Amino acid sequence: MAAVALLLPLLLTTKGCLNAPAGDDRRAGAATVLADLGPGSQRSGQRLPWPSEGQSSLVVEGTGHVGTTGGQRPVPIASLTKVMTATVLLRSHPIGAGEAGPSVTVDRRAEAEAGSSDESTAPVREGQRLPLRRMLELMLLPSANNVARLLARWDAGSQQAFVRKMNRVAKTLGMTRTTYTGASGFEPTTTSTADDQMKLARHAMRHPVLRAVVATRHTRVPGVPGTVRNTNRLLEQPGVVGLKTGSSTPAGGNLMWAAHVGPAKTSPLAIGVVLGQRAGTSPAQGLDAAFSHSEALLDALRERLPAALAGGGRARS
């Protein structure tokens, strides 16, 4: 496995830094537990079950960066791309809580692409009009590539122009090892790293509308037959509130996820990114592995972190 990086003094947030104020045992204790849980820890009994392949990154909001594995070589990310697509759209067309947003008209190309057997799509029809909020549901829940490309054309006139916007936003978020070449992630030339996708995931979970959409397990969209189901089956676990799947043969299984560490919705939010699981196999095999590793990480984190966050132990020198 590639070299593991865990630079806690640099990676911990200001809310959970190693140099905690005197007497702040809660913060210092949490930071100590993060060091024990990280992939570079010498305390193997405490370490989380990090994936042995691909890349991964894990953060607990308000506490710090637990760790990163697998190096920082850009790899294909498949449909995780759509999180950036949604981010760009919501910057250009803001939607408030409870709002539907502007209407989008389905064009002929999106209808034609709905019949593709080579990629995930949604059965939309030319001339159909749906608000942006509903279009985001079609793009993010079943991971419809034809809707992602439709929204790119609607926003910027062409997918190429939209991709330029995606790469500009990536730069503003500090995603220095990310290159977008399409709005859907279908192209294996769209590449990134676990740490870069973590920056995007944290940004996305701060947007109320995007956060609400990715937490939706299933819905019905007017004019679209049947139930629209989320491909993220990790949402079946209590406390999981997002985020996005991505899979292909070159990319393997990828999962960006967010979940509350404790039973309450006010408990700390853990965000994880797992890339490149079982790359070179089938998309289904890769995604199964991404789900399995992510669930194991989350279960272990929930078991080992809460005591420190509740002030259950004092920092060790």
TrEMBL record:
Alphabetically ordered keywords of this record: Cell shape, Cell wall biogenesis/degradation, Hydrolase, Peptidoglycan synthesis, Signal
Keyword Signal in record: yes
Gene3D superfamilies assigned: DD-peptidase/beta-lactamase superfamily
Ranges where the record places region Disordered: 36-55, 97-127
Positions of the Peptidase S11 D-alanyl-D-alanine carboxypeptidase A N-terminal domain: 72-263
Family matches, as Pfam families: Peptidase_S11
KW Metal-binding (keyword) present: no
Chain ranges passing through the membrane: none
Protein family membership: Belongs to the peptidase S11 family.
PANTHER family named among the record's database cross-references: D-ALANYL-D-ALANINE CARBOXYPEPTIDASE (PTHR21581), D-ALANYL-D-ALANINE CARBOXYPEPTIDASE DACB (PTHR21581:SF33)
Protein's name according to its UniProt entry: Peptidase M15
UniProt source species: Streptomyces alfalfae
